[in-house]
Amino acid sequence: MRLRNRLMGAAVVVVASGLGLTGCGQSSDGGSGDTIELTIAQNSISGGKNAAAADYITNWVIPKFEAAEKAKGKNVTVKFVPSGVDDEQYKTKLSLDLKSGKGADVFDLDGIWAGEFAEAGYLKPLSDVVGADADNWDGWAQIPQSVQGLATYNGKKYALPVGTDGRVLYFNKTLFQKAGLPADWQPKSWQEILDAGNKLKAAGVPVPIQINAGTAMGEATTMQGVLPLLAGAGGQLQQDGKWTGASQPLKDALGFYQKIYGGSGLGDPKLQQEAKGRDKSFQQFAGNEIGILLESDYLWRGVLNPETGVAKMADRDQSVGYALIPAEEPGKGINGQDFVSMSGGALRAVNPNSAHPKEAFELAAFTLSPDGLKEETKNGNVRITPRTDVNKEILSSEPLLTYISDKVVPLTAFRPPVAAYTQVSVALQEATAEVVSGKTPDQAAADYQAKLEGIVGGAGNVAS
Amino acid sequence: MAQATLPPEVLDDAKARRYSADAAGLGRLRAGAFVAPALALISLFLVFPALWVLYLGLSNYRLTGAAAAAPQLVGFDNFVKALTDPEFWNSTWLTFEFVLGSAVIGQVVLGFLLAWIMRDRTGPLKRIVEGLVILAWILPSAVVSFLWVALLDRDDGTLNTLLHSQDFAPLLDHPMLSIIIFNIWRGAAFSMMLYGAALGNVPPSHLESARLAGASGWQQLRDVVFPHIRGHVLTNLLLISLWTFNDFTPFLLTAGGPDGKTEVLAVHVYQVALQGGELGYGAAVSTVILLINLVVAVFYLRLLRSKK
Amino acid sequence: MTRFVLHRIGFYVLIAVLLAFFTVPLLWLASAPFTSDPTYKVRLPDFTSENFRAILDNPYALGSLWNSVLLAAGTAVLVVVFAALAAYALSRVHLPGRDALLYTLLLLSSIITGTAAMVPLFQLAVELHLIDSQLGLILIMTGGLLPAAIFMMKDFMDSTPKSYEESARVFGASPLQIVRHVVVPLVRPGLATIAVWAVANVWGNFLMPYLLLSDVDKQPAAVIMYTLYTEGGQANIKLLATFGLLYSVPVVLMYLFVSKKYGFRFHGGIKR
């Protein structure tokens, strides 16, 4: 009975305070005495997802940072909070934590979430949370404007950018040779991609072209499919505050899908519907079954990597080529470009609820110091860091990453970092799915516009 | 069964039975104390959050964005949105197929069959059969989804190897049938266990006398076994229908696809609430699922209520 | 005689078909962990121990299995004890509104397992300071499983004979003693069924443990299982298959133990 009374009492407390839905209070780490306790959270975990990043934090950042603070006379201890889940689940957990005034002092998030987190009050401008230290950080001078833009929302910086990426057309040189195509292939229009596909098909390549489509591939369809094509046709998802509906660029992009999956035999429509379709596209590319694949640098680093990849390709460096994604026709891309790409990237933020925001920011900045980034990216863990000074040093041994950093990042585009984006992205995936299963591009574009109006609050926010 | 629905003369009868049924002399007070711990946990961790979900269904609450900072009550907007959305109706129809095919028919029949043919066996064969059936049920969903992709894959799937067929893609060409068969495989164990335990309560002497009287297997089932396990059949139907309605595992096999052809309601809620972040709308759809389950439960009760 | 033989043949054909249906999907789990560089294709394994060495290198794998055992055992014990007490009382004493209450709770329990309930449950745990507490998680999961458990348990309680309780009462046993020494032995198959059911539910639960436990040293295997993917969401099949096998072993052992000790084979041992 005593237990029952206690629980009932607790229930009353909850009823009294619960339904307000607003979080209050401080993050859990109060810190006793003059010891400052910090926590840092990432979607990475030793022995699992993004293991290298987790090991970097535990084995290098934490001891070095604690020692550096000690030298300054401060007693700081740092605890790492690992995770290893889908991005959506990580985002859910972050949101729930931040909403309740909890969460780690420093945490990573996908750049695309910045806007919705800011609007929800889960993130605050760095200068408000940390003060002048944030603006005076010496790292900013090394970070290109476009990458800084990832961390910027409504003109204010909300976090530190952790890095960026880029998308290119990968091609299998062995298959290209069989089809009589050059090893330094660089298409200048969509038609040239289709022409190469037809030659590959004639040479008996099972899947000449793989451009992700459909809902099963999720965001991979949007980022490695619709959006680069849309940019290549001169379209943008959102422009001057209005979303783009059934515009000509979107119809062109969907038309390109139709040319690949609509019975030409250039692509495999069934693969786009399979739950594990993207996994299989990787296995097929590694197994010399796919000629051309639009993917991000992750394919090179994490998938085909001869040592640590999930679909290892022992001769990756010799037999995988890469080319810029061409506009529909030269000069027809966004901003009149000949070539286009899409980029994303992670952010490292300071929790507005942190009891020690200054030290938390120091920790975040420490992880992005030149020494730190060099440590993180050694031993085959190379990635494109946010700092040009570091990139110059570490990328020299990695031809693809140098290529992306030098050629792709300057012409790339980013997704609109607003809350509605996730749903808009799904609507785009559904539009490609419709084309793959036989609808016309015009019809799929019209269906997309109808859904879009529902998502962004009426036709007034949509331009066609 | 509910007391409130009983006519007065039956009530008196029930009252008389109550005292004879309370064989251990529990009395209402001690009975209350027996129920208390369970009720306390249920009130706090189930009733309260469930009511909260119903409340969320009336709001435009989202996980992130401006609507997370200041959610507003929007009345029945979410329900109107759901009921006018063809995707919702598509999901509802698929869910009925899924529940009827995999739970009401598949699991109940297969589960009973397994329990019946294993009822008076002992030894390794029974252990192996029961063990395998239960293995399918206790394996975590994450593992199971890999098993079935490996089985049904259109390139290297075990099924294609066994049938010597090329490019047979059950998950794409017969997606609903695939997840129905999958769920029969996955959930038959529960029905088997429940019926197994229930059959244990059928007095062997009754079966014996029926056999001596020359009753066929089917007659034994109908006249001796079924009356004894009627309550268990009802319980089983109620529970597995409820669980299957809310089962999210098909998502791991097909991701709701191809083209939404396996997007049952639980998957729909997952996509709306977790992937889209629309928690208010997700809560409203959950409420609709609850109401459908209510109707289904009442239907079962009327169908199988034992005549006293 | 021929009829008997036909009967036998039919029986074994049926058994063979059922066995195949339940075995074929499991082949992958039997082969992939022992194969070098496994894929979705079922192949004859080359019996490498390399995959097991790799998973044992994972700093959280074994600890998470232990956490799963703790969570599952804790929840199963609470569910069985509370459900047995409540079901017995509800079966023997007609409390007003009993059946309506049970059905309502059962329906509400379905909403709690859905995705939409995660926000209320999370905020409730925050207010009660149950975040990052395994006990808190056990209580929350118990609350969600209890209605169905009581529901099942009541059936078993209803169908046990009352005469033993009456005799025990005549000999001066208290109600709790009667439940322990008279009723529990009678409904043992039911208790075992519910215990196994509760364990299976907890064992596979990913979302609630992930949201409510942030300390990785407290997280169960279902959560650690999800860490064996890459940054792009690709499965590390080698680790997943191997960990999947390790992850399955404790539940299978538990089933064998329960079925041997408490027996789902308790067929009418006491006759009416």
TrEMBL record, chain B:
Primary location: membrane
Topology relative to the membrane: Multi-pass membrane protein
Keywords, comma-separated and alphabetical: Cell membrane, Membrane, Transmembrane, Transmembrane helix, Transport
Domain of life: Bacteria
Occurrences of domain ABC transmembrane type-1 (ranges): 93-300
Protein's GO biological process: transmembrane transport
Pfam families reported in the protein's UniProt record: BPD_transp_1
Any Gene Ontology CC annotation: plasma membrane
Keyword check for Transmembrane helix: yes
Species, as recorded: Planotetraspora mira
Family: Belongs to the binding-protein-dependent transport system permease family.
Locations listed in the record: Cell membrane
Stated name of the protein: Amino acid ABC transporter permease
PROSITE patterns for this protein: ABC_TM1 (PS50928)
InterPro entries in the record: MetI-like (IPR000515), MetI-like_sf (IPR035906)
PANTHER family, sorted: BLR7065 PROTEIN, SPERMIDINE_PUTRESCINE TRANSPORT SYSTEM PERMEASE PROTEIN
SUPFAM superfamilies, alphabetized: MetI-like
Coiled-coil stretches: none
Membrane spanning stretches: 34-55, 93-116, 128-151, 176-203, 224-245, 279-301
TrEMBL record, chain C:
Domain ABC transmembrane type-1: 65-258
One GO BP: transmembrane transport
Domain of life according to the entry: Bacteria
InterPro entries per UniProt: BP-dep_ABC_trans_perm, MetI-like, MetI-like_sf
Name the UniProt record assigns to this protein: Sugar ABC transporter permease
Species for this entry: Planotetraspora mira
Keyword Transport attributed: yes
CDD domains: TM_PBP2
GO cellular component, one term: plasma membrane
Alphabetically ordered keywords of this record: Cell membrane, Membrane, Transmembrane, Transmembrane helix, Transport
Similarity comment: Belongs to the binding-protein-dependent transport system permease family.
Membrane topology: Multi-pass membrane protein
Spans through the membrane: 9-30, 65-88, 100-122, 134-153, 190-212, 239-258
